[in-house]
Specification:
There is one protein chain. This protein is mostly beta strands and about 210 residues long. The chain has one domain: hypothetical protein yedk fold (Alpha-Beta Complex), CATH 3.90.1680. It contains four helices and 16 strands. The longest helix is centred in the N-terminal third of the chain and has 7 residues.
């Protein structure tokens, strides 16, 4: 599951790349995005900022409400569940990124391995979004079974979309969009680093 991704382009570059209206103006976003933090998405033809993860209400041992947990990954086999169904059917968006990370190594000593498309300055993954009372607009990345080199680091990977499929994902019928929820068949590369795996990823969730 993806709990960290990288976006190294600025808002103007991203908007131009996806032929989208830049609603973020001159504002930009962190080059590394964690669950519960803001990221940029393309929704309804506009580049806009949303929080990464749908809020999941949590309760303590005595039933008292706790801080919501960001559910930032959506399993393709759960798209029909109540938690995701209406967003998938009605509010699909593009998530622009330059790479995503997975943790490798032993517990307590895991490091970051970055995956990307060779030669691609920018690409898009499938995502869904909705308005929330807790954090305003929020999005979740859609995940499918891992394949190729991605399967070396995790059993799941983001649904990567080819440019010709962007319009189908965002505006096609649900059945057409679901057909795109498959492992990436193109090349991928892995950059295994000695960077410690740390930060907000430990708070993430997949549902």
């Amino acid at each position: 599951m993806c709990n960290l991704y990288r976006m190294t382009k600025n808002a103007d570059e991203v908007a131009k790349w996806f032929d989208a209206i830049n609603e973020m103006g001159g504002a930009n976003f962190g080059s590394e995005v964690y669950p519960g933090y803001p990221g940029a998405v393309i929704a309804d033809g506009k580049l806009t900022k949303m929080s990464w993860g749908f809020p999941l209400q949590m309760k303590g041992k005595n039933g008292q409400p706790l801080k919501p947990k960001p559910v930032n990954n959506t399993r393709t086999d759960k798209l029909d569940s109540f938690f995701w169904r209406y967003s998938f059917e009605e509010r699909r968006c593009l998530l622009p990124l330059t790479a995503w990370a997975e943790a490798e190594g032993t517990k307590g000593a895991k490091t970051r391995s970055w995956l990307s498309i060779p030669g691609a300055e920018l690409f898009a993954c499938a995502a869904i979004w909705r308005d929330t009372d807790e954090w305003g607009p929020a999005y979740s990345m859609v995940m499918t079974d891992a394949a190729g080199v991605a399967a070396e680091v995790h059993t799941r990977m983001p649904v990567i979309l080819a440019p010709d499929d962007y319009a189908v994902w965002t505006g096609g019928e649900p059945a057409e969009a679901r057909a795109l929820c498959r492992p990436w068949e193109g090349d991928l590369e892995i950059d295994r680093t000695d960077q410690p795996w740390s930060g907000g990823a430990s708070q993430a969730s997949l549902l």
